[in-house]
């Protein structure tokens, strides 16, 4: 029997590990002979649309302007910082959870306010002063 692990993102939100697809790939960059032989980098894929996340989370994730989310609504994370496959796997999962957690709180609506009377007065006074300085720079006429 295959046990399904649950990852807790917030107190109410959990993701099953069967929703996350993790592949080991070869890392890029320097690393000597080891980099050409061992697949230590992790390629994580998480489909937002087919996940068990609440609808509000899905909407906010899809509205994010993040380069890790492609046009089909799949989060793609590549982790290759460490030489160990397990550490890279943990790093990729942390990044995924952090991304999902970032949309867990609803942003507050901005309430429109008017500038205060004193701030308006200061603004107009500075404009007048600036205009006077420019007038003083002009040529003197007879």
List the helices and strands and how they pair.
Layout (H helix, E strand, L loop, with lengths): L5 E3 L5 E3 L3 E6 L8 H4 L3 E7 L7 H9 L10 E6 L5 H18 L14 H21 L5
Antiparallel strand pairs: 1-2, 3-4, 4-5
Structure characteristics:
142 residues; alpha+beta; Double Stranded RNA Binding Domain; three-stranded antiparallel beta sheet; two-stranded antiparallel sheet; 4 helices; elongated
Rg, alpha carbons: 27 Å
Tell me the overall shape.
Answer: elongated
Give the helices and strands as they follow along the chain: EEEHEHEHH
Whole-number mean pLDDT: 81
Task: Name the CATH class of the domain at 6-102.
Answer: Alpha Beta
- Give a short account of the largest sheet: 3 strands, antiparallel
Q: What oligomeric state best describes the polypeptide chains here? A: single chain
Extract low-pLDDT stretches: none
Number of strands: 5
CATH topology (level 3) name of the domain at 6-102: Double Stranded RNA Binding Domain
Strand content: 15-25%
Beginning-to-end CA distance, first to last residue: 101 Å
Name the strands of the widest sheet in spatial order: 3-4-5
Tally of separate helices: 4
Helix content: 25-40%
Protein structure class? alpha+beta
CATH architecture of the domain at 6-102: 2-Layer Sandwich
